[in-house]
Amino acid sequence: MPPDDRILVATELRRTFSAGLGRGRVSAVDGVSLSVGAGESLGIVGESGCGKSTLARMLVGLERPDAGSITVAGRNLATARGRQRRELRRRIQMVFQDPYTSLDPRLTVGDIVAEPLVVHRTTGRADRAGRVAELLELVGLPADVVSRYPHQFSGGQRQRIGIARALALEPSVLVCDEPVSALDMSVQAQVVNLLRDLQQRTGVALVFIAHDLSVVRHVCDRVAVMYLGRLAESGDTDAVYDAPAHPYTQALLAAAPVIGRRRTARPPAGEPPSPIAPPPGCRFHPRCPLAAGPCDADRPDLRTVPVELAPPSPSTGSDRPAGFDPGGPDPAGSDAAGPGLARHRVACHHAEQALATPAG
């Protein structure tokens, strides 16, 4: 996408945390770059502990990166001060993972949804009730719930309240940190479909963080795969799912259940290495079936790999273009590679071999 169309750009973000006295530091996010365009949806997936939630908190300003930059509409979030920082914070809001702890139990629904309007002074007292009713209707809740408290609602209804609060300031980007993982299976699809519908109606861009690969494919235009604080692969959703070029991505997809398919591939052996002492070179190499040569010494950079895709079948209804922005500030990666081809970026020394020998 053209650089001017990018609402949110993160460049070389790094964040570490103390592991305790004398135990070193945990590298939660290490050199991650990505971008999101207006009205676009970007999925971020990976195993627990890969740094997804820390990345989300940095994007909305709840965590300060140790290094790197975050720009919102071309302005640096880290260096903004006063009124400018307040304005930038309005443009990017968050839907939290746990609807049970993200809502203040002492406040009514009306007060919860109206809180951003009060803090940012965007709506007068006389108009506030009408705006709250409008937001509740937008997420499928009746206006008469304003006087009730969070404990009187189900998990799915609480998440709808959280979404209404996040939309109160009409943000350009909505960061959703595993918004359905704490919900019952029966209501997960309802919340996911609500987010898709809201994106189409409001034009808000989504950063959708999840570990459920099927949900990400349903919601997102592009996807980025994280492993131990770094990006392993990023690109158009269809390209990454149909032709994964990183052994870790292949292992994730092979482990995901698919109705009617007998699983033929095994998940990678062993557990992820400690983020306190990550392995040198490619961080996936201790578990990778293709590890050889430079893998245990040289860190692979994200590089563009052209992938040939089959035409979308009528049953999938896919209307995604072949070209895409590869996920970082690299405008050259946004062009299509040619008829039937799509580009995506992979941090693997053996990406071509991985494409030739998929995991199953």
UniProtKB/TrEMBL annotation:
- Gene3D superfamilies documented for this protein: P-loop containing nucleotide triphosphate hydrolases (3.40.50.300)
In alphabetical order, the GO MF annotations are: ATP binding; ATP hydrolysis activity
So which domain of life are we looking at? Bacteria
Quick one: where's region Disordered?
A: 299-344
Keyword Nucleotide-binding found: yes
**Database matches in InterPro entries:** AAA+_ATPase, ABC_transp_ATP-bind, ABC_transporter-like_ATP-bd, ABC_transporter-like_CS, Oligopep_ABC_C, P-loop_NTPase
- List each copy of the ABC transporter domain by range: 8-253
Keyword set for this entry?
A: ATP-binding, Nucleotide-binding, Transport
Q: Which GO terms describe its biological process?
A: peptide transport; transmembrane transport
Skewed-composition ranges (Low complexity)? 331-341
What's the family? Belongs to the ABC transporter superfamily.
PANTHER family in the record, alphabetically? Answer: D,D-DIPEPTIDE TRANSPORT ATP-BINDING PROTEIN DDPF-RELATED, TRANSPORT ATP-BINDING PROTEIN
Q: Specify the protein name.
A: ABC transporter ATP-binding protein
Origin organism of this chain? Answer: Actinocatenispora comari
Upper lineage: Bacteria, Bacillati, Actinomycetota, Actinomycetes, Micromonosporales
